[in-house]
User: Which sequence fits this backbone?
């Protein structure tokens, strides 16, 4: 297996609401979107939103369940100050701010928001792994 993440699919309760939320954050729906799925290009990866019940059915699991999902998505920024700016953009788009931006133990600065379905996004500035000119997150060797 080649080490990469190609597509992240989020199960959502209301496709139209989630599409509007992500578009308000600047994501643009791809022409590959159709019916019950919306695709967004997200750098070298893609993000998809799909009705939660249909996603559970596709996987073959029970849709019941909730709470902490054991994962977060991250959006890294170029400066410490951008963390607050992006958190505010997310709030304005309808996100719940779960944790305000603050200095963290690993030397960076981060905060969290939850999208309309509770998917957690970290907004982080990491001085140890600055973003490339193209926005790529590249870990040091």
Assistant:
């Amino acid at each position: 297996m080649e080490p990469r993440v190609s597509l992240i699919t989020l199960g959502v309760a209301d496709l139209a609401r989630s599409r509007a939320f992500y578009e308000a954050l600047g994501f643009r729906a791809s022409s590959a979107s159709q019916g019950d799925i919306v695709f967004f290009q997200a750098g070298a990866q893609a993000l998809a939103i799909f009705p939660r019940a249909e996603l559970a059915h596709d996987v073959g699991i029970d849709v019941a369940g909730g709470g902490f999902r054991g994962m977060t998505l991250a959006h890294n920024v170029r400066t410490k100050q951008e963390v607050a700016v992006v958190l505010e953009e997310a709030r304005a788009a309808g996100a719940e701010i779960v944790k305000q931006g603050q200095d963290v133990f690993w030397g960076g600065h981060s905060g969290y928001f939850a999208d309309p379905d509770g998917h957690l996004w970290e907004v982080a500035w990491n001085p140890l792994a600055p973003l490339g000119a193209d926005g790529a997150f590249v870990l040091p060797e």
About this structure: The longest helix spans residues 80-93.
